[in-house]
Amino acid sequence: MSSAATTNALMRTIAKNATVGILQNVKKKLVFIVLKDLNTHLNVKRIDMAKTVLKVRMTLISEANNHEYWRKKYVRNKKHKNSVRRVWLSKRPTIRLPCKVSLTRIGPRLLDSDNLAYAFKAVRDELGDLIIPGLAPGRADGEGMGIEWFYKQEKSTNNINWIIVEIEDAS
Predict the structure, then answer these.
(1) Quick check: helix, strand or coil at residue 119?
(2) Which among 35, 38, 120, 138 has the fewest CB atoms less than 10 Å away?
(3) What's phi and psi for 152, nearest 5 deg?
(4) In this predicted model, what pLDDT tens digit does every residue of 112-163 receive, in sequence order?
């Protein structure tokens, strides 16, 4: 019997015996939540167990085009790092290398691609340090360390600034 057939048979068994059931496939790191609705149709939702999502309220500005006193920039970057660290410590995720980290900026206006990456510099350094602790500051996010970085952005509808960090296994 194939793994897909086995999974389908288990899902049918859970659906017959319970209104709500959870099917876990440990090898593929997947969780299926099976809900039996009133019309006896099955709603199956796949949840990837290897994904961690952090949402931080933070205003990222275009650092490349911002010319200000160094101390002001230092304080802002320190605040960004502390915000990411607080959210990280509240969730205490376990991350396995290699991994993919997707950084999404949600703000009132869009930045161009090079300013977007530069705006995430302090956040990226802090995340690298949290994923691979014990290295010199700013070294854990370098090439060849097992972390792949992706940048995205969305326009907010209510002028509230957020960043969303999604970390998932690369395997």
Answers:
(1) helix
(2) 38
(3) -140, 165
(4) 999 999 999 999 999 999 999 988 888 888 888 899 999 999 999 888 899 9
pLDDT at 61 > cutoff 70: yes
pLDDT digits (tens, 9 = 90+) for 19-46: 444 444 444 444 444 433 333 333 333 4
Which strands form 147-155's sheet, in the order they lie side by side?
51-56, 162-169, 99-107, 147-155
Please report which helix (H) or strand (E) contains residue 76, including its range: helix 70-91
Residue 111 pLDDT grade (very low, low, confident, very high; cuts 50, 70, 90): very high
Residues 6+ apart with CB under 8 A from 83: 56, 57, 58
- The three-class DSSP label of residue 160 is coil
Judge contact between 124 and 155, C-beta under 8 A: no
Domain 51-169 matching CATH 3.30.450: the answer reads no
Query: Across the chain, how many H-helices and E-strands are there?
Result: 4, 7
- Coil, helix or strand at residue 19: coil
pLDDT of 131 reads 93
Q: Between the CA of residue 92 and those of 33, 53, 88, what are the distances in Å?
A: 24, 11, 6
Q: What is the end-to-end Cα distance of the chain in Å, rounded?
A: 25
